Amino acid sequence: MVFVVALLLLAGASARPVAELGPEIACDSRITRDGQIEREPNLRISPPPVWDAVRHLLVAPISGVGVLAGHALGMQSCAREPLLVMFWPPPHVSAGGTMLGDVFVTWLPASEASSKAYGIGDEGLYVRYGPNISQRRVTERQLALHESRHVNQWAVANFLAGPAAFPVAYAIDGVLFPGSRNHFERAAGLSDGGYPPAPGNWPAPRWPETAALALLVLIIFRRRLRWLSRIAVGGRSQVRAHAPQHCPVHTRGWWTAPASQGEGTVMK
């Protein structure tokens, strides 16, 4: 499993620069029926150049996974400073998506997919190239700022603990603090991301997911929990008590080390 994930991240690290160097139509460009492309002005939301380059480098592997996944699903791509956006081609319309590194994969379908969503107001002949989640430039800028802040979160988490750190932390936070309570969404700006105001700061656990999370934690950390349980019951003598050819953590028994070994068996 680890080998497969490593190969996937390696492929992603190669795919992201290729996507960056390839010709991309700017998101929200207007395309006439005769094929002419009219670009909208840049939103000008890029962070400082040095940090922008650093964070692109830090998230390149997982970003490339987003590119590969999008193309595998039949999505198209467009460039929206400072992000790459993957979206469904017409007549499908996206209602939202997920940041994978610096790639915004707009996989959430709108309630009603219609080609009408690819025009703004009374533009008539124009089609807007991209996911068209928003139909106003001001909300486009807000959404892009929100997603750009998520890129910062991905980059910092990748640097501190690897590519799995941010999605794991986000998922755990989302179980205990769902929706607008999520700390990562609040840090990225709730209103910019289209979230309603948070009803409060206290946890509001989703109990089925919380129970599943608790079970998962128990399975993953069962050995250390078992060791701590023996220490709580038997005292300091159980800190180093262990079975033959096992360390204290990997010794079986929730209340005491195996009776045949006794509390006097100490790992040297």
Radius of gyration: 25 Å
Q: Into which percentage range does the β-strand content fall?
A: 5-15%
**Low-pLDDT residue spans:** 113-126, 260-268
Distance from N terminus to C terminus (CA atoms, Å) equals: 34 Å
| Total count of strands | 7
**Which sequence of SSEs, written as H and E, runs from N to C?**
HEEHEEEEEHHHHH
* Total number of helices: 7
- Indicate the mean pLDDT: 86
Structural class: alpha+beta
Overall form: elongated
Helix content: 40-55%
Strand order of the largest sheet: 3-4-6-5
| Biggest sheet layout | 4 strands, mixed
What descriptive keywords fit this protein?
alpha+beta, 268 residues, single chain, elongated, 12% strand
